[in-house]
Specification:
With 178 residues, the protein is mainly alpha-helical. 63% of the residues lie in helices and 3% in strands. It has a single domain, classed as Serine Threonine Protein Phosphatase 5, Tetratricopeptide repeat, CATH 1.25.40. It has nine helices and two strands, in the order ββααααααααα. A hairpin with a 2-residue loop joins strand 1 and strand 2. Helix 2 (48-59) runs parallel beside helix 4, helix 4 (81-93) packs antiparallel against helix 5 (97-112) and helix 5 (97-112) runs antiparallel to helix 6 (118-127).
Protein backbone atom coordinates (compact mmCIF):
# COMPACT_ATOMS: atom_id res chain seq x y z
CA UNK A 1 0.00 0.00 0.00
CA UNK A 2 1.42 3.37 -0.95
CA UNK A 3 2.71 5.57 1.84
CA UNK A 4 2.36 2.98 4.61
CA UNK A 5 5.10 1.44 6.64
CA UNK A 6 6.23 -1.91 5.35
CA UNK A 7 8.75 -3.55 7.59
CA UNK A 8 11.77 -1.29 8.08
CA UNK A 9 10.94 1.14 5.26
CA UNK A 10 8.21 2.65 3.16
CA UNK A 11 6.67 0.79 0.30
CA UNK A 12 5.76 3.22 -2.42
CA UNK A 13 3.85 2.35 -5.51
CA UNK A 14 5.49 3.40 -8.75
CA UNK A 15 3.92 6.43 -10.41
CA UNK A 16 1.35 5.70 -13.05
CA UNK A 17 2.74 5.77 -16.57
CA UNK A 18 0.54 6.86 -19.45
CA UNK A 19 -0.26 4.03 -21.78
CA UNK A 20 1.47 4.36 -25.16
CA UNK A 21 -1.19 3.62 -27.68
CA UNK A 22 -1.12 4.16 -31.39
CA UNK A 23 -3.28 7.25 -30.80
CA UNK A 24 -0.79 8.84 -28.38
CA UNK A 25 2.12 7.89 -30.65
CA UNK A 26 0.35 9.47 -33.61
CA UNK A 27 -0.31 12.65 -31.61
CA UNK A 28 3.34 12.80 -30.51
CA UNK A 29 4.47 12.34 -34.11
CA UNK A 30 2.08 15.03 -35.36
CA UNK A 31 3.31 17.39 -32.64
CA UNK A 32 6.94 16.69 -33.53
CA UNK A 33 6.21 17.21 -37.19
CA UNK A 34 4.47 20.51 -36.46
CA UNK A 35 7.38 21.71 -34.34
CA UNK A 36 9.90 20.74 -37.01
CA UNK A 37 7.98 22.62 -39.68
CA UNK A 38 7.94 25.66 -37.39
CA UNK A 39 11.70 25.29 -36.83
CA UNK A 40 12.22 25.31 -40.59
CA UNK A 41 10.15 28.51 -40.85
CA UNK A 42 12.22 30.17 -38.13
CA UNK A 43 15.62 28.93 -39.36
CA UNK A 44 15.26 27.99 -43.03
CA UNK A 45 19.01 27.49 -43.48
CA UNK A 46 19.31 24.49 -41.14
CA UNK A 47 19.40 21.02 -42.64
CA UNK A 48 18.78 18.90 -39.57
CA UNK A 49 15.05 19.62 -39.18
CA UNK A 50 14.59 18.41 -42.76
CA UNK A 51 16.39 15.16 -41.96
CA UNK A 52 14.24 14.53 -38.91
CA UNK A 53 11.13 15.22 -40.99
CA UNK A 54 12.46 12.81 -43.61
CA UNK A 55 12.62 10.07 -40.95
CA UNK A 56 9.08 10.87 -39.76
CA UNK A 57 7.81 10.86 -43.35
CA UNK A 58 9.54 7.54 -44.00
CA UNK A 59 7.99 5.97 -40.90
CA UNK A 60 4.58 7.28 -42.04
CA UNK A 61 5.17 5.76 -45.49
CA UNK A 62 5.16 9.16 -47.18
CA UNK A 63 8.01 8.15 -49.45
CA UNK A 64 8.11 11.10 -51.82
CA UNK A 65 8.00 13.55 -48.89
CA UNK A 66 10.78 11.62 -47.14
CA UNK A 67 13.00 11.79 -50.22
CA UNK A 68 12.29 15.51 -50.71
CA UNK A 69 13.11 16.31 -47.07
CA UNK A 70 16.28 14.20 -47.14
CA UNK A 71 17.50 16.02 -50.23
CA UNK A 72 16.53 19.41 -48.77
CA UNK A 73 18.54 18.67 -45.64
CA UNK A 74 21.54 17.61 -47.70
CA UNK A 75 21.31 20.74 -49.86
CA UNK A 76 21.54 22.87 -46.71
CA UNK A 77 24.02 20.84 -44.68
CA UNK A 78 25.87 18.47 -47.02
CA UNK A 79 28.97 18.09 -44.84
CA UNK A 80 27.23 17.30 -41.56
CA UNK A 81 27.79 13.58 -40.81
CA UNK A 82 24.44 13.21 -39.05
CA UNK A 83 22.64 14.80 -42.00
CA UNK A 84 24.57 12.51 -44.35
CA UNK A 85 23.73 9.41 -42.31
CA UNK A 86 20.04 10.13 -41.89
CA UNK A 87 19.63 11.21 -45.52
CA UNK A 88 21.60 8.17 -46.65
CA UNK A 89 19.33 5.88 -44.65
CA UNK A 90 16.17 7.48 -46.08
CA UNK A 91 17.51 7.41 -49.64
CA UNK A 92 18.62 3.78 -49.34
CA UNK A 93 15.35 2.69 -47.74
CA UNK A 94 13.42 4.30 -50.59
CA UNK A 95 15.46 2.65 -53.33
CA UNK A 96 17.88 5.47 -54.10
CA UNK A 97 20.84 3.22 -53.40
CA UNK A 98 23.39 4.96 -55.63
CA UNK A 99 22.91 8.27 -53.81
CA UNK A 100 23.07 6.47 -50.48
CA UNK A 101 26.23 4.61 -51.48
CA UNK A 102 27.92 7.91 -52.41
CA UNK A 103 27.03 9.34 -49.02
CA UNK A 104 28.29 6.17 -47.35
CA UNK A 105 31.64 6.46 -49.14
CA UNK A 106 32.01 10.01 -47.82
CA UNK A 107 30.89 8.99 -44.33
CA UNK A 108 33.33 6.08 -44.20
CA UNK A 109 36.13 8.47 -45.13
CA UNK A 110 35.06 10.81 -42.31
CA UNK A 111 34.85 7.88 -39.88
CA UNK A 112 38.38 6.75 -40.82
CA UNK A 113 39.63 10.28 -40.13
CA UNK A 114 37.65 10.28 -36.85
CA UNK A 115 35.61 13.25 -38.09
CA UNK A 116 32.28 11.40 -37.95
CA UNK A 117 30.59 9.10 -35.49
CA UNK A 118 30.32 5.57 -36.99
CA UNK A 119 26.64 5.41 -35.99
CA UNK A 120 25.76 7.50 -39.04
CA UNK A 121 27.52 5.11 -41.41
CA UNK A 122 25.75 2.22 -39.67
CA UNK A 123 22.41 3.87 -40.48
CA UNK A 124 23.23 3.94 -44.18
CA UNK A 125 24.41 0.33 -44.10
CA UNK A 126 21.07 -0.64 -42.56
CA UNK A 127 19.17 1.26 -45.23
CA UNK A 128 21.18 -0.58 -47.86
CA UNK A 129 20.38 -3.92 -46.20
CA UNK A 130 24.03 -4.51 -45.29
CA UNK A 131 23.44 -5.68 -41.75
CA UNK A 132 26.86 -7.25 -41.22
CA UNK A 133 28.66 -4.00 -42.06
CA UNK A 134 26.24 -2.05 -39.84
CA UNK A 135 26.99 -4.43 -36.98
CA UNK A 136 30.73 -4.07 -37.59
CA UNK A 137 30.34 -0.31 -37.11
CA UNK A 138 28.21 -0.74 -33.98
CA UNK A 139 30.68 -3.20 -32.46
CA UNK A 140 33.52 -0.75 -33.13
CA UNK A 141 31.53 1.94 -31.32
CA UNK A 142 30.93 -0.37 -28.35
CA UNK A 143 34.68 -1.01 -28.04
CA UNK A 144 35.68 2.64 -28.32
CA UNK A 145 35.99 5.11 -25.46
CA UNK A 146 32.87 6.80 -26.87
CA UNK A 147 30.99 3.50 -26.72
CA UNK A 148 28.53 4.85 -24.21
CA UNK A 149 26.81 6.46 -27.18
CA UNK A 150 25.68 3.02 -28.23
CA UNK A 151 22.63 3.57 -26.04
CA UNK A 152 21.55 5.95 -28.81
CA UNK A 153 20.53 2.88 -30.80
CA UNK A 154 17.00 3.52 -29.67
CA UNK A 155 17.09 7.00 -31.23
CA UNK A 156 16.25 5.53 -34.64
CA UNK A 157 13.93 2.65 -33.68
CA UNK A 158 12.66 2.08 -37.20
CA UNK A 159 16.15 1.69 -38.63
CA UNK A 160 17.72 -0.35 -35.87
CA UNK A 161 14.69 -2.60 -35.37
CA UNK A 162 15.79 -4.26 -38.60
CA UNK A 163 18.66 -5.74 -36.60
CA UNK A 164 16.52 -7.19 -33.78
CA UNK A 165 16.82 -10.76 -35.09
CA UNK A 166 20.61 -10.55 -35.28
CA UNK A 167 22.41 -12.22 -32.33
CA UNK A 168 25.28 -9.72 -32.59
CA UNK A 169 22.82 -6.85 -32.17
CA UNK A 170 21.12 -8.48 -29.19
CA UNK A 171 24.54 -8.90 -27.55
CA UNK A 172 25.29 -5.20 -28.13
CA UNK A 173 21.96 -4.19 -26.58
CA UNK A 174 22.53 -6.51 -23.62
CA UNK A 175 25.82 -4.72 -23.03
CA UNK A 176 24.04 -1.36 -22.76
CA UNK A 177 21.57 -2.56 -20.14
CA UNK A 178 18.60 -2.36 -22.53
Amino acid sequence: MAGTAAGAGWALEPPLQPERTSDTAAMASADAESRLRRAIELAPGLGQPHETLALIDLAAERTSDAIAEARAGLALDALNPRTMGEAGYVLAATGHTEEAARLLTSLNDLVRRESAYPMYAALVYIGLGQKSQALDMLEAIAKSPRGAGLVALVQWPTAFSQLNAEPRYRELLAGTGR
